[in-house]
Amino acid sequence: MSRPVIVVVGAGPGVSGSVARRFAGEGYDVGLLGAEQAVLDDLVPGLEALGAAVGHTVADVTDEQAARDAVRRFGEHTGRIDVLHFNPSAYREQDPLSLSVPELLEDVALGVGALLTVVQAARPYMSAGGRISVTGSMAADEPWEGAASLGVQKAGVRNLVHSLDKTLADDGIRAVSVTVRGALAREGAFTPDRVADALWAAVARDESGWTSEVPYSG
User: Fold this and answer.
1) Could you read off the pLDDT of 39-66 as tens digits, one per residue?
2) Measuring CA to CA, which residue among 137, 135, 136, 183 is closest to residue 8?
3) CA distances from 163 to 184, 211, 213 (A)
């Protein structure tokens, strides 16, 4: 039997990189989809040192066709996608009086719409037991007005996760958003590695009593 596979969308040096390493340590092979080749190249050696086979692709996930093609290539190569982790969001420091509608929609396309794209592309390669995870944020409930679009993205992506979970549950595929109720830091309860541990725990739960949102408060 082949090893399980996680595809990390929005792969970078923070939480998403920690998620990739956490799952690699649990025996997963890893597909990385990110925006910068140099960042992906930095992640690969550490993942391979954990025994993972690693594929990586640079794509703009707001380019629907490019994102679909990238995820499809991962699925075709491995024959399976067991976990799809979605991390992207846009941080734009503008309050609601300076934020334009086109800017808001551009950010939502990244932080919410791209999830639709990658899930639809991954679905043919997912089977019962498959999981979709999303890095959520307390900004969904307690937005900072200085970066108004971020709260909209995080509320929207959490809502979409609820819908995805209900849609896919009959096929044995579940979705979860882990709401990080704290600011990321280099030390303490909200390091990227600790958040990755929370995401692993949320994905690895038994399906009985499943919830499509899990709060992480450290």
Assistant:
1) 999 999 999 999 999 999 999 999 999 9
2) 135
3) 27, 12, 11
Per the structure block, which two tokens stand in for 175?
A: 């979705």
Q: Between helices 114-122 and 148-168, what is the axis angle to 10°?
A: 30
Q: What architecture does CATH give domain 5-216? A: 3-Layer(aba) Sandwich (3.40)
Nearest Cα to Cα of residue 96 among 143, 34, 139: 143
Q: Residues with Cβ < 8 Å from 65, sequence gap 6 or more?
A: none
* Cα–Cα distance, 140 to 2 (Å, whole number): 38
Nearest one of 129, 116, 15 to 71, comparing CA atoms: 116
| Cα(29)–Cα(44) distance, integer angstroms | 11
pLDDT in tens, 88-131: 999 999 999 999 999 999 999 999 999 999 999 999 999 999 99
Beta bridge partners of 134: 86, 177
- Crossing angle of helices 101-108/148-168, nearest 10°? 40
